[in-house]
Design brief:
Blueprint: E1 3-9, H1 14-32, E2 41-46, E3 67-74, H2 79-95, E4 104-111
Helix pairs in contact: 1-2
């Protein structure tokens, strides 16, 4: 179960945000074998005072269209799957909504399977 957090500057239309949510979810399904309907996405929109980033670290030219994607996932994926995920998200976001690949920042947080409870106070993966 990935828990996806997407952060971007305020002011993008609903269709732009939906395209980002869909691209990340579909990429996870494709590269991480995430089941259908295992979709938990939080979008955080920030004004300029709450959105700070370096526009060139590490030699990548970013714009104010940068999108930060953080996915908390179970620690069960191989390095090749992670690399495929990064590529697929960047490719999909370049297609729709037309983001530059340089403006796609991705971070994975890996946790043990027992660190998930989908509800009812139960650790479903234990």
């Amino acid at each position: 179960m990935p828990l996806i957090r997407i952060s971007l500057r305020k002011g993008k239309p609903a269709g732009h945000i939906a395209a980002i949510r869909d691209a990340v979810y579909l990429s996870l399904r494709e590269t991480f074998d995430v089941p259908e309907n295992d979709r938990f996405v939080l979008v955080h929109e920030h004004d300029e005072t709450g959105f700070d980033y370096d526009p060139t670290y590490p030699d990548i030219a970013r714009t104010d269209d940068v999108v930060f994607i953080q996915a908390t996932v179970s620690n069960t994926r191989a390095l090749a799957q992670k690399q495929a995920l990064y590529r697929r998200i960047a490719d999909r976001l370049a297609e729709n909504p037309g983001l530059r690949r340089e403006d796609v920042f991705i971070n994975l947080i890996e946790v043990a399977k027992e660190n998930w409870s989908f509800g009812n106070g139960i650790a479903q993966y234990v």
